[in-house]
Fold this protein.
Amino acid sequence: MKRKNLTRAIVGGGALLLAASSLVACAGATGTGAQSGDAESIEAALEKGGEITYWTWTPSAEAQVAAFEKAYPNVTVNLVNTGGAGDNNTKLQNAISAGSGIPDVVQLEYQSLPQYVLADSVLDLTSFGFGELEGDYTASTWGAVAQNGGIWGLPQDSGPMALFYNKEVFDQFGLQVPTTWDEFIEAGRQLQAADPTKFITNDTGTDAGFGTSMIWQAGGRPFSTDGDKVSIDLADEGVQKWTGVWDTLLEEDLLGDIPGWSDEWFQALSDGTIATLPIGAWMPGVLEASAPGGAGKWAVAPMPTYDGEPVTAENGGSSQVVMQGSQNQALAAGFLKWLNNSPDSIAVFLDKGGFPATTADLESNEFLGKSSEYFGGQKINEVLVDAANSVGTGWQYLPWQSYANSIYADTVGKAYLEKTSIADGLSAWAEKNVSYGNEQGFTVAE
């Protein structure tokens, strides 16, 4: 990939000034470069031992590291909790820019991975035999880590979307669980007419991850990358399907103006103000931890569809990668392989509420048959695994998706504030992304 001057890396909404030359050079300057290796070199490194640093924000990390060090007592893993995706990426870019302090293994969201791949900051794991692991993961998550001719990490989890709904609210107002988006709109109208303080769902137009996932589920494929050529089409048929539904909800005041992840949001999920959430399969753990008042009230159903054919999208999810700056790439690769491919590690991850990307776990009777007290005894994994098997194929993120996400609220979000066409907001978002991509040396067509 040729880039004229990658002058900015936008992470978590903040701008970090970087020169392209330093970004690429520092990625390998503190390590040993693109080491060659194989499965045997991984095993030898694990047996010999050493010290590596692991950056992550996953709640299961401490228990996983403890289990790994018990299995491999010659290895010390220095665990750093980076707090969340945005802070994680900012710290990582700072380390890359400085050329020091780069972790050996780090968690990256699927949507953030391409910018680090294109900057040559992460290690291609193909030579370590990671290609043999493809069949262990869902197609959508493997496709997120295997791109641009390399294998850049291993999937940690997946976020196939489903419809989480407050069964108590639905029963109270005689609402039917919607199977289509037209029915979703009608349920919103019925709920609002019965109690204007309640909303079928919330959306303030600030969450680009939600917007792109909804476009994905509607069949939209607005982004395409081939080398340094990028295509952006935020007016394709799938985009129009989604905006048609969401414009109606917006115009009729059926969307709660409640920011996601705020204290108000969690309270609204607890007390029934928000009746549904179209969101990723990782949400059960969040509800249990942060919306205790909703215990016994919530249930899970498949995502509504546009034409009756079951299809969904991924919403969120992360991988772990080995950095080019790692001083011991073989040992780091060994830890990563254990972390996201070992049954022992994945068992810990699931016990902490994670939703797997591994097909063996998604297909296990134990996982499928587990009932949830929070969800009134429902075997929610049956619904969520069906969703994982129904993710639409062919989705791509922009090479600069973190930057794109950071300007979503200023473009698409403006349409929500002014209650104008979301399509107009998407058009403004596309225009800014075209300009930015061209400035960075890509050839961007709209």
